[in-house]
């Protein structure tokens, strides 16, 4: 995927187009979140990713209203938190999120984590939420192959997207191949590995070669391998930098080299331990 731009979208299996580059707002405090979202939208981002547990849905909603960008042009994602999982509680949780966001629908509603004993009932609630038009599409987050296999055995709807930690130092090729096989978009959160590998000498070498920042190299890699990618930032200059990745292309040789960097280096929670 070399011919990319900020307006590039990927088609989900639920017939909805997902803007490939988005803004994540995890750990963005209310005022910071509002300004970050407005900044991103002014730069051409059209995909905003939040969650109930982030505590900033209301600020995301306010930022969208104040941005001047039509709601229908924005791909808005939020997530069902663990404490709200289960059929009836999930149905209530979406209404709370919609009220905070100030909208009648989200474009994607995700199960945030594969909570044992509750994830399948939660998914059935998400199917109802989609049928009622409160979510245009539904998906999951932090689901491994075993969780996806279980879900598909129990229910009839294939998730449109699976949002997981994914970057050059954490490349779960088994999970990626399964998602491709089932038509599930893979969305990479923490594409910069929380900055913990940002100064890796191999990244620095490529940044010097392409005259780009280390972060831009990692984001460009995620885009070229076909992931939806949601780098998180509350800094307007970083948000701008993260989107300035469409004027260069990583060569086939460099893409092949990066594919060998996997270290199973996980910076967030580990869903592989969930039954």
Automatic annotation (TrEMBL):
<dbReference type="GO" id="GO:0043892">
    <property type="term" value="F:methylglyoxal reductase (NADPH) activity"/>
</dbReference>
<feature type="site" description="Lowers pKa of active site Tyr">
    <location>
        <position position="79"/>
    </location>
</feature>
<dbReference type="InterPro" id="IPR036812">
    <property type="entry name" value="NAD(P)_OxRdtase_dom_sf"/>
</dbReference>
<dbReference type="InterPro" id="IPR020471">
    <property type="entry name" value="AKR"/>
</dbReference>
<protein>
    <submittedName>
        <fullName>Glyoxal reductase</fullName>
        <ecNumber>1.1.1.-</ecNumber>
        <ecNumber>1.1.1.283</ecNumber>
    </submittedName>
</protein>
<feature type="active site" description="Proton donor">
    <location>
        <position position="54"/>
    </location>
</feature>
<keyword id="KW-0560">Oxidoreductase</keyword>
<keyword id="KW-0521">NADP</keyword>
<comment type="similarity">
    <text>Belongs to the aldo/keto reductase family.</text>
</comment>
<dbReference type="InterPro" id="IPR023210">
    <property type="entry name" value="NADP_OxRdtase_dom"/>
</dbReference>
<feature type="domain" description="NADP-dependent oxidoreductase">
    <location>
        <begin position="21"/>
        <end position="260"/>
    </location>
</feature>
<dbReference type="Pfam" id="PF00248">
    <property type="entry name" value="Aldo_ket_red"/>
</dbReference>
<feature type="binding site">
    <location>
        <position position="112"/>
    </location>
    <ligand>
        <name>substrate</name>
    </ligand>
</feature>
<dbReference type="InterPro" id="IPR018170">
    <property type="entry name" value="Aldo/ket_reductase_CS"/>
</dbReference>
């Amino acid at each position: 995927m070399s011919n990319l731009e900020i307006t590039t979208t990927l088609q989900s299996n639920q017939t909805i187009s997902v803007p490939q580059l988005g803004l994540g707002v995890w750990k963005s405090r209310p005022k910071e979140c509002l300004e970050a979202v407005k900044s991103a939208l002014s730069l051409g981002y059209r995909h905003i990713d939040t969650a109930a547990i982030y505590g900033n849905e209301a600020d995301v909603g306010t930022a969208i209203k104040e941005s001047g960008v039509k709601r229908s042009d924005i791909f808005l994602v939020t997530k069902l938190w663990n404490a709200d999982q289960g059929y009836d509680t999930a149905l209530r949780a979406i209404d709370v999120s919609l009220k905070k966001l100030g909208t009648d629908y989200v474009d994607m509603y995700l199960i945030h984590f594969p909570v044992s004993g509750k994830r399948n009932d939660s998914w059935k609630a998400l199917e109802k939420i989609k049928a009622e038009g409160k979510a245009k599409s539904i998906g999951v987050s932090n689901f491994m192959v075993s969780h996806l296999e279980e879900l598909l055995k129990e229910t009839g709807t294939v998730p449109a997207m699976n949002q997981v930690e994914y970057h050059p130092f954490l490349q779960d090729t088994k999970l990626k191949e399964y998602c491709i096989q089932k038509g599930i978009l893979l969305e990479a959160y923490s594409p910069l590995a929380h900055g913990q590998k940002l100064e890796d000498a191999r990244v620095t070498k490529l940044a010097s070669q392409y005259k780009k920042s280390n972060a831009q190299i990692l984001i460009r890699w995620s885009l070229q391998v076909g992931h939806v990618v949601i780098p998180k930032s509350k800094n307007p200059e970083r948000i701008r930098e993260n989107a300035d990745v469409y004027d260069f292309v990583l060569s086939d040789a460099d893409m092949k080299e990066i594919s060998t960097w996997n270290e199973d280096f996980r910076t967030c929670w580990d869903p592989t331990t969930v039954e």
